[in-house]
Amino acid sequence: MSPNYIRSFSEGCLRPPTVIGQFHTLFFGSIRMFFLGVLGFAVYGNEALHFSCDPDKREVNLFCYNQFRPITPQVFWALQLVIVLVPGAFFHLYAACKSIKQEDILQKSSYTGFYIFSVFLRIVLEVAAFWLQIQLFGFKVNAIYMCDVGALEKKFNITRCMVPEHFEKTIFLIAMYTFTVITVILCVAEIFEISCRRLGLLKSQ
């Protein structure tokens, strides 16, 4: 791929053809990623080390932590961010290969339809991630986690585990849910903006 394609691709990703799309890129690429990268590490970085059960033994702590966290929140949210970026990246790669200028995307129906489809696909992926996050993490992190250690052939099948900084994690969970909702709203608003531009209700940029 030539440098011109790479430049067009990067410009398309950083500067979508709609005003709301540009705001979405700013919100998604700056605020949401910064929040996850910096604060997410501070809240969840040492969770496995501080997760302790009764009896406080390494094998019990590790077994119960794996049961408590089938996937760590940082990994889940990082995968979510990457997957949600894929539809837009494919579209802008297509636009770069076809030498389509950003200002021309909303002028031709086929380009506009393809772009709307990529935005709609982002919505579907965000909603799917939202539902999956609920299944994995819920809305609240409790201070005590009851772990089933029957597979370890312990005397007692259920043991109590202490979850470190559970209140901070609850706040972080709510924040990530909020970010997902905001992103979906921005995507819906972007489709609405495109429709208004196509109908002539809004002036082109």
Automatic annotation (TrEMBL):
<keyword id="KW-0812">Transmembrane</keyword>
<feature type="transmembrane region" description="Helical">
    <location>
        <begin position="25"/>
        <end position="44"/>
    </location>
</feature>
<dbReference type="GO" id="GO:0007267">
    <property type="term" value="P:cell-cell signaling"/>
</dbReference>
<keyword id="KW-1003">Cell membrane</keyword>
<keyword id="KW-0472">Membrane</keyword>
<dbReference type="GO" id="GO:0005922">
    <property type="term" value="C:connexin complex"/>
</dbReference>
<keyword id="KW-1133">Transmembrane helix</keyword>
<keyword id="KW-1015">Disulfide bond</keyword>
<comment type="subunit">
    <text>A connexon is composed of a hexamer of connexins.</text>
</comment>
<dbReference type="InterPro" id="IPR038359">
    <property type="entry name" value="Connexin_N_sf"/>
</dbReference>
<keyword id="KW-0813">Transport</keyword>
<dbReference type="InterPro" id="IPR000500">
    <property type="entry name" value="Connexin"/>
</dbReference>
<comment type="similarity">
    <text>Belongs to the connexin family. Beta-type (group I) subfamily.</text>
</comment>
<dbReference type="GO" id="GO:0005243">
    <property type="term" value="F:gap junction channel activity"/>
</dbReference>
<dbReference type="Pfam" id="PF00029">
    <property type="entry name" value="Connexin"/>
</dbReference>
<feature type="transmembrane region" description="Helical">
    <location>
        <begin position="75"/>
        <end position="94"/>
    </location>
</feature>
<dbReference type="InterPro" id="IPR019570">
    <property type="entry name" value="Connexin_CCC"/>
</dbReference>
<dbReference type="InterPro" id="IPR013092">
    <property type="entry name" value="Connexin_N"/>
</dbReference>
<feature type="domain" description="Connexin cysteine-rich">
    <location>
        <begin position="125"/>
        <end position="194"/>
    </location>
</feature>
<feature type="transmembrane region" description="Helical">
    <location>
        <begin position="114"/>
        <end position="134"/>
    </location>
</feature>
<feature type="transmembrane region" description="Helical">
    <location>
        <begin position="171"/>
        <end position="192"/>
    </location>
</feature>
<protein>
    <recommendedName>
        <fullName>Gap junction epsilon-1 protein</fullName>
    </recommendedName>
</protein>
